[in-house]
Amino acid sequence: MNETNLLIEAFKNTIYKVAGHGKRNIQILKDVLHEVDGQTDSDVYGNGKIIEEFQAKMAAYLGKETAVFFPSGTMAQQIALRIWCDKKGLKKVAYHPLCHLEIHEEGGLKELHHIEPVLLAGKDRLIELDDVLNMNEEIACLLLELPQREIGGQLPDYETLEEISSYCREKGIKLHLDGARLPEILPYYQKSAAEVCSLFDSVYISFYKGIGGIAGAILAGDKAFTEESKVWKRRHGGDLISLYPYIVSSNYYFDEKLPKMQQYYNNAKELAELFNSCHAISTMPLVPVSNMFHVHYQGPKEQVESVLVELYELTGVGLTSYLREAIDGTCNYEVSVGDQYATLPKEKVKQVFQLLDEKMKRFNII
Amino acid sequence: MNETNLLIEAFKNTIYKVAGHGKRNIQILKDVLHEVDGQTDSDVYGNGKIIEEFQAKMAAYLGKETAVFFPSGTMAQQIALRIWCDKKGLKKVAYHPLCHLEIHEEGGLKELHHIEPVLLAGKDRLIELDDVLNMNEEIACLLLELPQREIGGQLPDYETLEEISSYCREKGIKLHLDGARLPEILPYYQKSAAEVCSLFDSVYISFYKGIGGIAGAILAGDKAFTEESKVWKRRHGGDLISLYPYIVSSNYYFDEKLPKMQQYYNNAKELAELFNSCHAISTMPLVPVSNMFHVHYQGPKEQVESVLVELYELTGVGLTSYLREAIDGTCNYEVSVGDQYATLPKEKVKQVFQLLDEKMKRFNII
Q1: Is A40 close to B28, i.e. CB distance below 8 A?
Q2: Same domain membership, residue A346 and residue A298
Q3: Has residue A93 been placed in a domain?
Q4: Residue B136 exposed, middle or buried by CB count within 10 Å (0-12, 13-18, 19+)
């Protein structure tokens, strides 16, 4: 077995996991259905009490007129941008170079919708007001992702958001929020979801990230926008006869996880501090602004892998199942703090980070 | 309340239903999960034992090299046609004027894939060999739907299928099967699924029609085709992190319903004969070739509605919850025979059709 597989194996065998909500197994759905009356009618092609009530609940939470449930954010966001492009008669949008649509969707936006993206800012930093002001090209829509996942979940100042929003309104540019992890950033901004969303014309949120559901997304905006999105949802093949397995689980875990977002955020800050206290380890951002951050190890992947395997075997605590290699030869991974951190005994945490610090001191820093 | 709503209400209040498998409620999913171990791992973006095993099972059933699970047939079929068009470098396909892609998908094939359809045959009949031979335009792919749902689930002779298949292979035209209801036609053709599919280059089947699942579809073909379909599945937003709620239910009801297809077919023929014995009622086709057919009433919708409401109240047996108005002023609806027909006492059946016949004699035939 190579180091990568040894790490996966060692992680699997640990008793405690530092990040996440727990295993993605079928129990997640069984727990939900245990609470649902079997006589509840299915939704039928986007209609029915079960989907309409959840859509209304999410519209209220997001402070938007209406909301539509989608099987995926990929589908919801392509459609949002398509609607705004069609409205303006201009197939051009702007987003971050590490936007989900740019790097995780096999070019769906271009291949299916023939929309051309303008990439704003650099791969290592957030979109700032100047990036928007200095754009040379006319666009129909600007997409902002909060937090910006691929750079560790960073966030702009709230004032920057307000300024970008004002500028876009003035210039007739629609502003779309990739809010896959919107609930996770509210403790930092100290704002309600509706307050943040009021800066945007349309917003998408996900139910399997911080919320811990199975899959599914909500797209919200004004009624004309969401009605058009339903037509595109059918065209994409997303208007399933029944979406209720995702709806009931989204609703269940939304209610369960929402009150815990402050706790996840606090735990993320505590955990990041512990990583930063270790030799040759740092987090990005240094102080998290949500429940997520990236952990950077100043060492080569294979060496860090063997350090982690030893650590897991000695302590029974798993930090990560994978490492990504960076161009400079160091390595890193993503942490999303969820329910599992709170189950970890304090003395275990102390032991893990003492050992990690010692072990990291033993090899040469890149 | 108008007659239409009275019919819905009266239907709901009946004890017995003649058609279908039963209510589409959440119990459908609860029954499945009761049988599944909660520790079973979720699929993750198209990977994992739970999805791979089901795909392999379906590939074997359909006699194809590989199969891919999709959230919907709408998505699967657009993608199949897109792949065949790209392969030939020609964005033109042929299908029936009442094809699902033409009438139920908000023009997704045109709007997302810019594929132009050539409509073969008339709205009131099947595609025959001559329609294919006499096509003036070059196409990349021909789609055949078996059975042709919108005209009562009619089927061509098996020899016609073989001839169309030979011709398409000779001419380099890909042949795609809309086999949403494929299991339902096998008792009539007296063929295995794999035998029918061997005439086609690609095939889609559905899990919420005759199979009685919640949603979901399989697209099957050779490996190059299915691998490309996975890329398009991601572009469409159909590559959900977890599709298992649909996979476990599709698998469960596939195993449960497949052995009953002969029974549904026999019952459909018996039931059609009963309708045809009534005054001013006939079925299309006259003798069903699957578990489905349409029932045509030679009378105006409102009058037939009040006949049915009376019938339901007198007998406690529901025939249909809706009627469609035809251009000639008559009305009709679709019947798919499922599990419920077998629960209906024989004397009830006799009573219902005697009464229906008497009532239909009372009003003027259009």
Answers
A1: no
A2: yes
A3: yes
A4: exposed
